[in-house]
Write a structure and sequence with these properties.
- The chain is 36% helix and 20% strand.
- With 762 residues, the protein is of the alpha+beta class.
- The protein starts with a strand and ends with a helix.
- The relative contact order is 0.06.
- Strand 13 and strand 14 form a beta hairpin.
- Helix 2 packs parallel to helix 5, helix 3 packs across helix 6 and helix 10 packs antiparallel against helix 11.
- It is built from 23 helices and 26 strands.
- The chain is elongated and about 115 Å long.
- The strands form six sheets. The protein has a nine-stranded mixed beta sheet with strand order 4-9-8-7-10-6-5-11-12, sandwiched between helices.
- Bound molecules: adenosine-5'-triphosphate.
- The site of adenosine-5'-triphosphate has 19 residues, from helix 3.
Length: 762
């Protein structure tokens, strides 16, 4: 036999939530033939029912509403959005509830923040909560909050226009992607999702700054109206949203559906949410007299997740909290850290790294990113920080709940506060530690680098204080194991005897780098080279000259030394140099306009020559980056200075082409063919070394000349031109065209005269 007993226990209520009770249901039942006792714990609290009017407007009230009614048109984007929403076949329409609960919670956050400095702010309605009631009879779903409310002006602006940047992009995106409404909350247009389930929406709101309560009504798409509330001030303070549920959305009036949805969406809301639901009575379950009376049932446990002991929070809870707080419904965090900082400064925090970097990571329109939510003793303060976290770490999402921040200062001055500065330092340290821990998980770290590798490089450039730490976290593709990434520590551990430099090669892509002539000798000798194929890499090696005492050597630049040169090899090199003096002089004289000097190469094995930038000059890759749109500045003096710097032409003393030229030079036989060959060698070296050709036409002419001589075609032979002339117009058409032209001249004349007249008038 099943029995049911009650035990009731009072609990101390959190500040303004009012009194709560915990209801424990003890159930004895037979499971698999064994007697077992199970407990069900539920919190119940009857909200201040009198303060809120949940009734539908009477006909008389509706009439009165019309008397003060003002009509407004929606902003074009809003109408466009509504059309999309109304016609959407979106399956998960339930998200409207998530958006409304989130808006209500934001509104309560706002009034609670105001109440920190204004003791009267909460007076009109002290209980801070959200209530949800389904009125099946009238097909109404009523959502009420005792938040900050909206003035008449705010009703008009907040629920009639979309101020946020990116709205048009969002509209385009959902238009194309078959309406992924899940994104709606991220774009700051969540409210309008009510039209997924409702054909008419009424928003009643009362703000402390105004005596009157206003009613906003819309049947969607083009316009809305605002009237004074004929019922007077029924809310005290806050907002009541009434959804007139569409015929095909009746499930949102069902208690069971609502119960499930609210539980799902209110788990991480820090205010009590109540659902008007059927009351369980203290009677036998199977009893005939099951009462149908209703009560407000509390749907959520409002203890914030960050206040809980990390040991008791499951991964699933962390992931769900992430989704709710980032409004990234499908998104998952790559990793997170939950900690309590004590000592100099006390705070709790959860920091997440999203598994995907936001698309607009480095180009936010606003000058702040809402990636950190600051609470002080559970009270939400702000998420509008300017430069709180350095730019390179802005991809994180975090909650920070501090114990001791002054609350009577403005949000702007708060940011400079000593405690917040200390918090900031701790957070940066934690993030870097967190990334460092992530390096141990190869798969996750590869994802991390793919998403945030560029951010880390930016960090190594900008964060002087943490450069060493950040540099440790960097990963690069390298010649050691193609397809794999390597850290600088790993590179150093593989360095050859006598090697003092970290060899790197920059370029537009890994493929381009791999084929570069600069790598030939290094690779032939087994030296490892890091492939730097990102535009930011050039800046990185300029700002971070080395790591762990080893400097970077861009193999496309300056003098290349291996560190294993013996006296003999040096002597031999000097000897080679002497042998090539004549050719060097010849080539230099030929290319005087283009190259600084011609030198014997230490880096080439199979290519005849390469163009090398001077130590402080620009590589071909850098030139491309600087002339690309992102960096282009028309009158940048430095830029044109570097761009005009002459380069060094290195020649390979072992290459047959060079040896042939050498012979010609030594024989004083440096004729036209040798001169042409020198030009072409220089130009092909430019291309192979990643620079752009300046004289395309000259290059093409020279190549054609070689083709002619290879194929035995006379240099002066011309293509036979045998084209039939285009047919002339016949006489009549000619006349017509001439007339048309004359008329056109006339009208042009008139237009000129008109212009003159307008000028005179002005
Ligand atoms: N319950 C409410 N109480 C007070 N103001 C509200 C309420 N609901 C909406 N608003 C106001 O209307 C604005 C527009 O709401 P909407 O949901 O469309 O966007 P949002 O809340 O700014 O962004 P998001 O959807 O990302 O939360 C809000 O910013 C807020 O100012």
């Amino acid at each position: 036999m099943k029995s049911k007993r009650w035990a009731e226990e009072s609990v101390s209520a959190s500040e303004s939530n009012g009194e709560q009770k915990i209801k424990i249901t003890e159930k004895e039942e037979k499971i698999d033939g064994k007697e077992q006792v199970t407990f069900k714990k539920e919190k119940v609290k009857v909200v201040n029912e009198d303060s809120v009017n949940y009734q539908a407007l009477t006909d008389e009230e509706t009439e009165k509403l019309k008397a003060t009614e003002e009509k407004f048109e929606f902003q074009t984007e809003v109408s466009r959005l509504m059309k999309l929403i109304i016609n959407s076949l979106y399956k998960t329409r339930e998200i409207f509830l998530r958006e409304l609960i989130s808006n209500a919670s934001d509104a309560i956050d706002k009034i609670r923040f105001l109440a920190l400095t204004d003791p009267n702010a909460l007076k009109a309605t002290p209980n801070l909560n959200i209530t949800i009631l389904a009125d099946k009879e009238n097909r109404r779903l009523v959502i009420t909050d005792s938040g900050v409310g909206m003035t008449k002006k705010q009703l008009k602006e907040n629920l009639g226009t979309i101020a946020k940047s990116g709205t048009s992009e969002f509209l385009d995106a959902i238009d194309k992607k078959n309406a992924d409404m899940n994104l709606i909350g991220q774009f700051g247009v969540g409210f309008y999702s009510v039209f997924l389930v409702a054909d008419k929406v009424t928003v009643t709101s009362k703000h402390n700054d105004e005596d009157k309560q206003y009613v906003w009504v819309s049947q969607a798409v083009n316009d809305f109206s605002i009237s004074e509330d004929p019922r007077g001030n029924t809310l005290g303070r806050g907002t009541q949203i009434v959804l007139h549920i569409k015929e095909d959305a009746s499930e949102f009036l069902e208690e069971k559906t609502l119960n499930e949805l609210i539980k799902k969406y209110s788990e991480f809301i820090n205010f009590p949410i109540y659902l008007w639901s059927t009351k369980e009575e203290e009677i036998e379950i199977d009893s005939e007299d099951a009462s149908k009376s209703k009560q407000w049932s509390l749907m959520n446990d409002q203890k914030p997740i960050w206040v809980r002991d990390p040991k008791e929070v499951t991964d699933k809870e962390y992931e769900e909290f992430y989704a709710s707080f980032t409004k990234d419904a499908g998104g998952k965090p790559l990793t997170w850290i939950h900690f309590k900082a004590e000592g100099e400064v006390d705070f709790r925090s959860i920091i997440y790294i999203p598994s995907k970097a936001p698309q607009d990571l480095f180009k936010k329109a606003e000058d702040f990113v809402r990636n950190i939510k600051l609470f002080v003793k559970r009270v939400f303060i702000t998420d509008e920080f300017v430069d709180f976290i350095p730019k390179y770490l802005q991809f994180i999402r975090a909650i920070v709940d501090a114990d001791d921040l002054p609350l009577n200062v403005s949000r702007e001055t708060l940011q400079q506060h000593k405690t917040l500065v200390l918090i900031k330092k701790r957070i940066i340290k934690k993030i870097l530690d967190m990334i460092s821990t992530l390096t141990q998980d190869e798969e996750k770290y590869t994802t991390f680098i793919k998403e945030y590798g560029t951010s880390l490089k930016l960090g190594a450039i900008e964060d002087d204080r943490n450069r060493k730490k950040v540099a440790k976290l960097l990963r690069f593709p390298s010649s050691y194991k193609p397809g794999n990434l390597t850290s600088l520590d790993e590179y150093i551990s593989r360095m050859k005897k006598g090697q003092t430099k970290i060899y790197v090669m920059t370029g537009g892509s890994i493929e381009e780098i791999k084929q570069s002539p600069f790598l030939e000798r290094l690779q032939a000798r087994g030296y490892e080279v890091l492939y730097l194929a990102e535009p930011i890499d050039e800046m990185l090696i300029q700002h971070m000259p080395g790591y762990d005492g080893k400097t970077f050597q861009n193999v496309a630049k300056g003098d290349l030394k291996f560190g294993d040169e013996t006296d003999e090899s040096k002597e031999e090199f000097e000897k080679t140099k002497l042998e090539f003096v004549r050719l060097q002089d010849w080539m230099q004289a030929t290319l005087i306009e283009f190259v600084e000097k011609v030198e014997i190469s230490k880096r080439l094995t199979s290519s005849p020559c390469a163009i090398v930038a001077q130590e402080w000059g620009w590589t071909g890759n850098m030139e491309k980056i600087m002339s690309s749109q992102t960096f282009k500045q028309e009158d940048d003096v430095m830029q044109s200075f570097f761009a005009k710097q002459k380069k060094i032409l290195e020649i390979n003393p072992k290459h047959p082409l060079i040896l042939t030229l050498l012979k010609k030079a030594n024989d004083e036989d440096f004729d036209d063919t040798a001169r042409e060959a020198t030009f072409i060698l220089y130009e092909t070296a430019l291309i192979r070394s990643g620079y752009t050709l300046k004289d395309n036409l000259g290059f093409a002419t020279r190549v054609e000349k070689i083709l002619r001589s290879n194929l035995g075609v006379n240099l002066d032979a011309k293509a036979v031109i045998n084209e039939a002339p285009a047919p002339e117009l016949d006489e009549e058409a000619k006349k017509e065209a001439a007339e048309k032209l004359a008329n056109k001249e006339d009208t042009d004349l008139f237009e000129e005269q008109d212009d003159e007249m307008i000028r005179d008038e002005l």
